Amino acid sequence: MSNIKYETELHDFPNIFSLKGKVVVVTGGSRGLGLHAASGFLQAGASKVYITSRKASACQQACDTLNALPNLSPSARAIPVPADSSKIEGIEYLVKEVGKTTDHVDVLFANAGATWGESFDTHPDSAFAKVMDLNVKSVFNTIRLFAPLLQKNGTIQDPSRVIITASVAGIGIGTLGKQATFGYSASKAAVIHLAKNLAVELGPRHVLVNAIAPGFFPSKMASGLMEISGGVESLSKKNPSQRLGRPEDIAGLVVFLSSRASAHINGATITVDGGEVWARGGMAELKEEPEKAKL
Ligand SMILES: NC(=O)c1ccc[n+]([C@@H]2O[C@H](COP(=O)([O-])OP(=O)(O)OC[C@H]3O[C@@H](n4cnc5c(N)ncnc54)[C@H](OP(=O)(O)O)[C@@H]3O)[C@@H](O)[C@H]2O)c1
Which residue ranges traverse the bilayer (predicted)? Predict the structure, then answer.
């Protein structure tokens, strides 16, 4: 007779998305997607959220905003740690600084990134290298150097998490033409594959690694590209869900990927783009207003 025990009960389901007491590091946390995510982490119960980017004043300002959020638990804190993730010394400094006020990290959101737009014939070597360095090599090194702190509290039942910000540009074709993003697109495809490799390497160490692939979200980085791609209204209309990304879309996804609800998801890439990447071949035109359209 088999001695396999089949579990049939859900454990504490009402708290399945809770991040109560978790320690989180957000790279590129001073604005845009990183700031949206940090806001979600804190409101889901995280006790410490380290915010890092190059500019000290931007990190401090982001933390002031985050610490003033309503509905935070009394001990919840956003903590600024300015550092340049594009340099190995910057990442070493970041890990050392974080390690001064915590003995472990539960969640690393490896989100800092850069882009460059220029046509194929003149696409500069230096820009391609800069984008690949920050978006791929630095993501790898940030995860590698945070691994000891991530492994500290990870268990089979409650593994630590790494979430990498990729992009739909790493799944479908990125922007072409005068502002083509060859390096960016290649870098985002690379980190999607990196997440799969690291999922297998770090899974047995009780650290899960997943990637998210956002479509367009208004941000400092995306605004120029959105403008040359037709602007907010036109891009919204081309999206199957008829809109662009909102802060809650990012916050909800990263909280899910950091919570017990996703404790068996490893090596996945989750798109958060309203289905836009699958509609690039063309989308049926709605003949009626969306709410009146028949199935
Ligand atoms: N917005 C979109 O539509 C979209 C879509 C798909 C993917 N993404 C990805 O989402 C991530 C965040 O982008 P975003 O749109 O939120 O852009 P953003 O608003 O421009 O934010 C970029 C963040 O990265 C930081 N950063 C840049 N270089 C850094 C470095 N060398 N070291 C440390 N931090 C650095 C910036 O702060 P400092 O300038 O102070 O360093 C800032 O906090 C990127 O990986 C991007 O590729 C964005």
Answer: none
